[in-house]
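Hi everyone, sorry if this is the wrong subforum. Our group has a chain we'd like a structural model of before ordering constructs, and none of us has done structure prediction before. Sequence below.
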Amino acid sequence: MTAVGGAVIDAVPPGVKEWVISLFGTADKVALLAGMALVIAALAALSGVVELRRRFAGVAIIAVFGVVGLVAVLGRAELTAYAIPVPLLVAVAGISLLRWLIRRLGEWQPVTGQPVPGQPAPARRRFLQILGGTAAVAVLAGLLASMLRGAAAAVTEVRSKLSLPAAASPAAPVPAGAEIRLDGLGPLVTPDRDFYRIDTALRVPLVDPEQWTLKVTGLVEREIELDFATLLAKPLTERYVTIACVSNEVGGDLIGNARWLGWPVRELLALAGPRPEADMVLSRSTDGWTAGTPLEALTDSRDALLAVGMNGEPLPLEHGFPVRLIVSGLYGYVSATKWVTELKVTRFADDAGYWTPRGWSERGPIKTSSRIDVPRDGRNVAAGKVAFGGVAWAQHTGIAKVELRVNGGPWQQAGLAPGISRDTWYQWKLALDLAPGQYEVQVRATDLGGVPQVEDRAPVAPSGATGYHTVRVSVK
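Answer:
Right subforum, don't worry. Here is the predicted structure as tokens:
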């Protein structure tokens, strides 16, 4: 099912994906799986109806979808030998169950006369037969689910026992006053459990770190292969970095700030020696997903890391365990490859990441933006001093100031907390004296280069949303 779901994600137009993400947020995968379950249920019912009317017509429907499942499995990058027969076995089980149910239905006739002593009554016998057939299907499904749970448990146990080395270059302490205390304003550092997750993997890839390797290939003087133990032995860097999804709407929450531990990518690429004509690195996940990152973003002074840790712990499975990419200043679709297994040094003219052929821009620099978190849009507040608060970001550039305006009036500068670094978001706060009435409040940020965020509204595609976040409050 996950293979078919992955094929569906790959095939649907970008606009549909954006609509799903905007509607369901980080529950997009649950929504897709629920939709697929409904479609499968409808097809199962259709198969039964047509099989009753014409023998083997329903069987043909199930067989076709078994073949579709096989093609989907064969097309996935994380293909394993045991996965190949699964769609065929499921199709065979479905066909067998369908034919068995059709036969039972044909035998289901009113029965007269007395039951034979020592034998179950006909109705009871038919019930037991149906129950037995259903149990057989359930056992098959249970065995498949058990295999997946067993693999997940094994990797989870490995992760729980993993001890990360201390950073050779620790993160600087969080400056005093960087986190503003205001009810409703989220933490400066996002906990793992609250960190957004947007990717194309319906099932979290399960990667044993002992089996993990990273290859550097392409336009390099020397190809390199790195294993996990060698990576952990490198002088690791720890930094706070805020990352964001290009699908983040104005005022959205597909953004988070964490403390990452990893090895600078520039040091790995320096060992490989990129050739002069190279201008891009195509990173590949174990599930086949790719991102095209500008080479200069991985070789300049910014904190671009092969990350192994998040907030003091090994990466969570859903956030890329055992290794992922973190690159400051770029949207995730061109940089934040989870479960990374290959870095191919190449050119934009020759290769493209997963999203670029689907209509997104090539390089994906993050745009300066800001958000009002307190009070929320549509809230009622008491007259008097009303505290507004939120976050602003311009990763790898930094924020100089944040301003608010009320009902289109003059801009008023908010109090800006010191950022952890230019690579993280900043919190801000401003108390406004508001009399009873209806108010529309907007926020804008200006980066350290003196460039304000863009006012004109633009959608997330093809290069990130723009516009001022606006909330409407009713003052009583």
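For your construct planning: Residues 136 and 262 are 48 Å apart (CA to CA). The two ends are 52 Å apart (CA to CA).
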